[in-house]
């Protein structure tokens, strides 16, 4: 058994959550995610057909207008299909506000080694309140 890896990060929206990593190379508009299943329905998206429900979502940034982005994450949260936590490279105001309101832990400014250490399916704990991500396997 290997030791856990711990990476420093910057807290944006507080909280703590554990889950499997799901990595997207593309920015995400949560309005283009089916609230009933959590599956990305945006044509041509890196995660098209994959579900964000219960995952620790790692992605570059949000996209879309304020209304659709906030409503999309709200719909996911109300249906129980939202990500457990989000790790983002480039925060934008709408996504930040939405994560805070929906109480989804959100961090950025993660130590660079994190992106080499994690792949889809790896289990992590995002501890935004203590500005750290723990990779457990």
Structure description:
With 137 residues, the chain is α/β, with parallel strands linked by helices. The chain has one domain (5-135): Phosphohistidine domain (Glucose Oxidase, domain 1), CATH 3.50.30. Helix content is 21%, strand content 26%. α1 packs parallel to α2. The radius of gyration is 14 Å and the shape is globular. The protein starts with a strand and ends with a strand.
Mean pLDDT: 93
Which topology does CATH recognise? Glucose Oxidase, domain 1
Give the class from helix and strand content and strand pairing.
alpha/beta
Identify the strand order in the major beta sheet.
1-8-7-3-4-5-6-2
Number of strands: 8
Our count of domains comes out at 1
Percent of residues in beta strands: 25-35%
- The CATH C-level name is Alpha Beta
Largest sheet: 8 strands, mixed
**First CA to last CA: what distance?**
9 Å
Determine the CATH superfamily: Phosphohistidine domain
Quaternary state of this entry equals single chain
| Count of alpha/pi helices | 3
């Amino acid at each position: 058994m290997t030791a856990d890896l711990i990476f420093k990060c910057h807290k944006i929206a507080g909280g703590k959550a554990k889950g499997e990593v799901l990595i997207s190379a593309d920015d995400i508009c949560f309005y283009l995610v089916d609230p009933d299943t959590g599956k990305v329905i945006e044509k041509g998206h890196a995660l098209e057909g994959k579900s964000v429900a219960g995952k620790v979502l790692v992605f570059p940034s949000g996209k879309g207008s304020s209304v659709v982005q906030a409503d999309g994450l709200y719909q996911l949260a109300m249906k129980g299909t939202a990500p457990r936590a989000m790790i983002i490279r480039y925060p934008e105001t709408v996504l930040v506000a939405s994560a805070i309101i929906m109480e989804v832990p959100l961090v950025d400014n993660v130590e660079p080694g994190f992106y080499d250490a994690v792949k889809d399916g790896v289990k992590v704990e995002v501890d935004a309140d203590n500005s750290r991500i723990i990779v457990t396997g």
